[in-house]
Design the sequence.
């Protein structure tokens, strides 16, 4: 296989998997998934090289795992031992920003930050904005990444218009195009989005861009409890104010986030430990955003907010950024696992209380924040004992799915949540997934350790 | 099989396919697809009856075609001879309008009009609005219907959050839920949307609702030619004005539509035959919509509109409705086929001129209108000679796909466009579709005559 891999990408772009120089590439950011040791790491330079790599591995009976930026939180990019790790770092070109059709065509290794900056030169934005904007387009397509702005713009799935990808047999498929809609047979674009590198390796991505909104206003509203806060979220969403951000942070998370960012908001001390709702409005015209901010304050006040703070631009930006980095803050604080279940928006409060009860039952500490507008709850679980941690997580997944939720809203299944999906997912649906996977990858070469048990 | 079908749905709900009482059910509205003669038409009353019907047909080696309201324009609901036609008319209950989570849960036989009316009682709307609102939720899910409001709200795909469906083996799968986003394995909801009854029969649909916008303003702008009009569409979309409707009508279509609706807009005679752009703005506040209408008029004027008419509410509503019914108008005028290719928005003008040239080359008349904001061009082709009609259509599909387009933007492939998809679709993609279909329906019982050749 080594000869074939070298023939595929060149000797400069193949490194043995146990070489110390690639140690950092052998795991993503998932807290509970140990690094693997791939046979080789390869860096293809274009689509044909990706196809040649796939054929080489397949011929040798070896599996492949794709790696974007490795910021994933589910172990989806963590290679199984012996697999070929396909790193997309060299395929990082923005091929086209088309301001007329408001689309971009990029290679999978392009980062969200670079794409958004390039779009910005045309007054456009790519609004998929998970906490870590070093994430790659290929990785975000494979996880269907969300982030804070999904409440207004939708997740990755809403933005991907077309893909080029290499299938398990090395064939190249092209789906969609610069088309905002299509109804011409099964939507293979949508099937590949969220498939975590198990159906195809993505070699080109066409995404929709949006006009960049110049005006922003951000308010922070502490609530007496999560119930009141979640009820307020429903009212904000149904108000038609179309918030650009609608985030929940519990008191301890707020403290951790502000401390990590060295940010003081000057809140009265008795409010810091409250449950916080952070809402950003964005628009084209200052006077409308100002008017909407007043309406928002009224909605939040009527919904029981203890106060509504209009954040100055600098603090607002820093708080939003600090919230994006909440993962690092809770990781630094010693969190043992992070999960991101999604439940019906109105069930968030019930889920939070059941999740905390699950924590209490097993002596675990459970902190929460989340993309409240989407019903997507991010829980940090502190429990050093592996058995108790597993029990806590089990009960958390049980609570969320019993409320009509799913095991992940945006981080994906990966290796971290495959057992939870197997236990709590729809069994017929899982069987369908297995059949689809077998149809496209009969030998199981694409990320076989990922997503299914 | 008859005994099994009767056992499944009751004798009152099975009729022989050649019974005159069911003649109307044996075709949809596609102009070029002849009616089929099913063996039986059955009307299941619930999910379990659907599953029993599927098992009965499969056991007998007979295929099944689902039928919603039969308003489809691609022959997707037209049964193959001998198939069991599964009519969803009895499964027409709105199970839940949940204003807190802004979702609805409905049976597949519910019409768009009924769902939108029920949502309206809560200040909400289901904005999927193809020209024919008698269309059913099941049918619109299966075709991924679009319509005039897709430019703002997206197509059916953007709204379906969860499904219950019966697979080819009679098993019941549940996908998604009241969840605005999810990343927990392949998105089976999205795979089933647009699958035209070939992967599963949908028995329950969960969709997202939106706040109903109370204020509307509509303008009509005649342009000197399609090039200028299409360039204007790009500017309207990138303006951030978020039009609720953005429609193109050529002069003859405008005449036909107004005549069919007995509508006089009082346009100067020399403008009636121009290329028309119809734009509707919608919002929460009158003063903003008014201000936006002025901005829109400026954008259109700067883009070369010959004039910009602010339509009075009554005429605007009637014109929008008449445009929705354009299909009936051009059908009455004797159109022989209607196609709805989608191309990159900026390529619409090029596509229109190539499509007209194709018409000229074969002596066919080609009229155009379309959801301009989406790049979705609806062409009516007048050509009584079947051979010349086929040649014209062939060249039209060739022109659209050469511009990066697809054979259908919203009507689907069905029986009418299966050959076009086979010729102009991505061959690897078609092979993938075949493998997926075989994986879920190995015996080919679900609508086998549809979508693939
Ligand atoms: C601080 C922090 C905050 C975060 N916040 C959010 C958030 O708010 N919302 C959110 O959704 N996520 C968030 N994440 C998670 C992470 O950013 C996303 O999962 C992101 O999509 C991963 O992108 P990546 O390029 O790092 O992919 P990787 O981690 O490298 O890979 C992810 C998956 O994509 C596959 N893959 C990568 N490239 C390709 C390709 N070319 N073809 C096929 N498959 C490929 C991998 O095999 C793997 O299955 C956060 C992560 C961190 C560290
Ligand atoms: C005047 C007019 C204007 C139109 N304008 C538009 C427009 O602007 N945009 C647009 O997108 N369409 C438009 N259409 C087309 C049509 O309305 C859509 O295709 C609609 O989605 C069809 O819905 P239906 O219930 O009539 O489905 P049918 O025609 O009955 O069936 C369509 C497909 O759905 C399948 N199906 C039906 N029910 C189920 C089920 N329960 N489970 C699985 N599969 C099922 C059928 O097998 C078939 O494949 C128009 C049609 C007319 C007549």
Sequence:
């Amino acid at each position: 296989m080594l000869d074939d891999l070298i023939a595929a990408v060149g000797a400069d772009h193949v490194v043995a998997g146990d070489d110390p120089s690639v140690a950092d590439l052998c795991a993503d950011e998932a807290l509970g998934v140990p690094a693997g040791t791939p046979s080789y790491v390869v860096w293809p330079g274009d689509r044909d090289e990706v196809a040649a790599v796939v054929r080489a591995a397949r011929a040798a009976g070896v599996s492949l795992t794709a790696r974007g930026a490795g910021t994933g939180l589910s172990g989806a990019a963590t290679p199984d031992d012996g697999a070929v790790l396909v790193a997309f770092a060299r395929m990082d070109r923005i091929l086209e920003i088309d301001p007329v059709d408001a689309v971009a065509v990029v290679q999978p290794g392009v980062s969200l930050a670079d794409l958004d900056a390039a779009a910005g030169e045309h007054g456009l934005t790519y609004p998929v904005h998970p906490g870590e904007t070093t994430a790659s387009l290929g990785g975000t397509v494979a996880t269907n990444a969300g982030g804070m702005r999904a409440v207004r713009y939708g997740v990755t799935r809403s933005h991907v218009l077309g893909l080029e990808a290499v299938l398990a047999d090395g064939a190249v498929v092209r789906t969609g195009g610069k088309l905002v809609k299509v109804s011409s047979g099964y939507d293979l674009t949508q099937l590949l989005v969220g498939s975590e590198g198990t159906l195809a390796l993505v070699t080109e991505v066409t995404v929709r861009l949006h006009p960049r909104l110049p005006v922003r206003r951000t308010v922070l509203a502490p609530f007496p409890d999560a119930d009141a806060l979640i009820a307020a979220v429903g009212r904000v969403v149904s108000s038609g104010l179309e918030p650009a951000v609608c985030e929940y942070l519990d008191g301890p998370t707020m403290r951790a986030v502000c401390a990590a960012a060295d940010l003081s908001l000057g809140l009265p001390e008795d409010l810091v430990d409250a449950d916080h709702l952070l809402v950003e409005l964005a628009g084209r015209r200052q006077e409308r955003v100002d008017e909407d901010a007043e309406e928002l304050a009224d909605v939040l006040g009527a919904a029981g907010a203890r106060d509504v703070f209009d954040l100055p631009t600098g603090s607002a930006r820093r708080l939003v950024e600090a919230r994006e980095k909440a993962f690092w803050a809770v990781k630094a604080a010693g969190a043992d696992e992070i999960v991101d279940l999604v439940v019906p928006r109105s069930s968030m409060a019930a889920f939070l209380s059941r999740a905390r009860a699950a924590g209490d039952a097993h002596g675990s500490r459970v902190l929460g924040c989340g993309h409240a507008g989407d019903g997507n709850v991010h829980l940090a679980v502190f429990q050093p004992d592996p058995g108790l941690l597993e029990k806590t997580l089990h009960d958390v997944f049980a609570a969320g799915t019993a409320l009509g939720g799913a095991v992940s809203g945006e981080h994906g299944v990966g290796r971290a949540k495959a057992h939870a999906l197997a236990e709590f997912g729809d069994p017929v649906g899982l069987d369908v997934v297995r059949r689809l996977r077998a149809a496209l990858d009969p030998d199981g070469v694409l990320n076989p350790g990922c997503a299914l048990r």
User: Anything to note?
Assistant: Chain B has a mean pLDDT of 96. Residues 286-302 of chain B form the longest helix (17 residues). The longest strand of chain B covers residues 200-208.
